[in-house]
Amino acid sequence: MNLRDLQYVVAVADHAHFGHAATACNVSQPTLSGQIAKLELELGVEIFSRVGRAVRATDAGEQIIAHARRALAASNDIVDCARANRDPLTGRLRLGVIPTIAPYLMPYVLPAAADKLPNAPLVLVEDMTAHIVPLVIEGKLDAAIIATEEEAPELQSINLFDEPFWVAMPSNHALVALKEIKASDIDPKTLLLLTDGHCLRDQAAELCNHPQAGQGAMADMRASSLETLLHITAAGHGVTLVPQLAVECGRVDTDRLVTRPLAGTLASRRVRLIHRRRSPRVTALIELARILRAALPDGVRKLQS
If you write DSSP's letter for every residue of 64-110 in order, what string do you get? Predict the structure, then answer.
């Protein structure tokens, strides 16, 4: 067994296809298939079941694949550790960011990071929490910026800031008359939400104390981006919640929309930087967190750890 064999196993698991996995590993399919067959013979169990062209991991294979991912991440850590000891602030930082943060936060962070960490360029991956957290655990990302608590034992978090929610509504909406809006003021049937999988959707529904928010008589609209929700709101189809940075960045169309702060101690989200506990890039990530907080506008409450 060697790292190359484990790379082949993970590639087949990721692509669910021997040919595609071979292409990704830059080897011929017979070579990849042969090495996996030898590994299965050595271990005495099947890792993959093959039915026609379909490839599925066996029960034993699922466990082996999980260990293989950790082993590959550990081997990458050896290289990163050596580089970090030569210069902890050198080498690209692969950073995941969720979609309801990336377009509003990164315009503040990128110029500051380029100035303060010139030898550690950021490589950004924008995706939902459920997709980027496993990439951090597997070592494919050095860190991620998320807006939920992460309880995976392999991970550690650095608190960045608390971001208040605002209510966005059409300029002729009845709630415009209020200087501050309570969650109880919002008719759940008019609350427009993001599609399933976005943490902002769950937070908005929970704040308004209505698990079926957005499923009223007006329309069942679930957008994949906050920008789409704002356009639908501006067209008069309901109200939505927006994070403070979206307001600060000028991404809200003030000609057609009015925003009001959402009242209450729970009307905000905590944004964190997560990374593996034994990450060799901890020094660079702590510096990145410091740069990030310093670059934030005054509308968010910066945290120290």
Answer: HHHHHHHHHHHHHHHHHHHHHHH-TT-S-EEEEE-TTTHHHHHHHHH
- Would you list the domain boundaries of the chain? 3-83, 91-154+278-299, 162-261
pTM for this entry: 0.71
Q: Is CATH 3.40.190.10 correct for 91-154+278-299?
A: yes
Look up residue 195 and give its amino acid: T
Topology of 162-261 in CATH? D-Maltodextrin-Binding Protein; domain 2 (3.40.190)
Pick the CATH number of 3-83 from 1.10.10.10, 1.10.260.40, 1.20.840.10, 3.40.462.10: 1.10.10.10
**Per-residue model confidence as pLDDT tens for the chain (305 residues):** 899 999 999 999 999 889 899 999 999 999 999 999 999 999 999 999 887 777 899 999 999 999 998 888 888 878 777 766 677 788 889 999 999 899 989 988 999 999 999 989 999 999 999 999 999 998 889 999 999 887 789 999 999 999 888 999 998 999 999 999 988 888 888 888 887 667 777 777 777 765 444 454 344 556 778 888 888 888 888 898 888 888 887 777 778 899 999 887 778 889 999 999 888 889 999 999 999 999 888 777 888 76
Q: Which helix (H) or strand (E) holds 286?
A: helix 282-295
C-alpha of 124 from chain center: 10
